[in-house]
Write a structure and sequence with these properties.
By secondary structure, the protein is mainly alpha-helical. It contains 7 helices and 2 strands, in the order ααααβαααβ. Helices cover 53% and strands 6% of the residues. Helix 3 crosses helix 5.
Length: 160
């Protein structure tokens, strides 16, 4: 790849999939769907906790903090994915439970900005392109979805 920051990369750089054994991609699509369900439960629980705090603060501040509530769920999801995927475990709790991890296509850990962009692209594509999000993975090497390709990441089974 031309540089690690993402600028100056070509389309071929993002389409690259590391040559890994077939077992690394075995069952990834199904596991990812289950991981998303688990992660949405965690995100919802975090959202409800923060919502409760903002609601109480809204009573104290005469409703001023209630303006933070509408964008709260997307912000929680964005930070949840960005922080967990870019962390040392390279996976969200749902992904870890389903024995998955996410890496850049060159095998390096995913930086926060790529992990957060991946989440943003996933949620936007899910709203506007359902079920095309999953159909793309039927035709790509490494069972990559469109938001994986655009983010320059690959999801595999956890090694070891």
């Amino acid at each position: 790849m031309s540089d690690s920051g993402g600028w100056g990369r070509t389309a071929a750089d993002f389409a690259h999939v590391p040559q890994l054994p077939a077992a690394a991609y075995e069952g990834v699509r199904t596991r990812r769907i289950m991981a998303i369900v688990i992660d949405l439960i965690f995100i919802t629980l975090i959202f409800l906790g923060v919502f409760a705090i903002l609601f109480v603060l809204g009573v104290i501040t005469f409703g001023l903090t209630w303006f933070l509530i509408p964008p709260l769920y997307p912000v929680v999801a964005f930070l949840y994915n960005g922080m967990t995927i870019s962390g040392w475990r390279m996976a969200t709790p749902g992904m870890r439970f389903m024995d998955l991890e996410m890496r850049m296509t060159d095998g390096s850990p995913v930086p926060f900005i790529n992990a957060a962009a991946h989440a943003l692209l996933f949620y936007v594509s899910w709203v506007f392109l359902t079920p095309l999000v999953l159909l793309v993975s039927l035709f790509t090497r490494g069972k990559r979805c469109l938001h994986d390709i655009l983010s320059g990441v690959v999801v595999t089974r956890r090694a070891g």
